[in-house]
């Protein structure tokens, strides 16, 4: 019947709205984490990066280091200013 169909669609819409609210809550959590990372001084970020790599870099390690610097401007600065990485 039409009433049953309308009720089914209404339930589906309710489920979709719940899902959207859940996704928005997750996005808020991720933004909070990203905000904290963005406040890290470039020097600290570089120190963290230096912990990811061995003291002597192989060619593959250098390629990963270059990729790390492609993430964003700040990460590039952090990678380039850490002389110990190069």
TrEMBL record:
Name this protein carries in UniProt: F-box domain-containing protein
Domain F-box: 34-86
Pfam families linked: F-box-like (PF12937)
């Amino acid at each position: 019947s039409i009433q049953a169909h309308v009720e089914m669609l209404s339930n589906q819409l309710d489920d979709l709205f719940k899902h959207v609210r859940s996704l928005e809550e997750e996005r808020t959590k991720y933004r909070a984490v990203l905000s904290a990372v963005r406040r890290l001084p470039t020097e600290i970020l570089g120190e963290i990066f230096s912990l990811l790599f061995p003291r002597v870099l192989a060619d593959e390690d250098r390629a990963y280091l270059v990729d790390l610097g492609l993430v964003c401007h700040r990460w590039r600065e952090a990678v380039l200013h850490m002389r110990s990485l190069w």
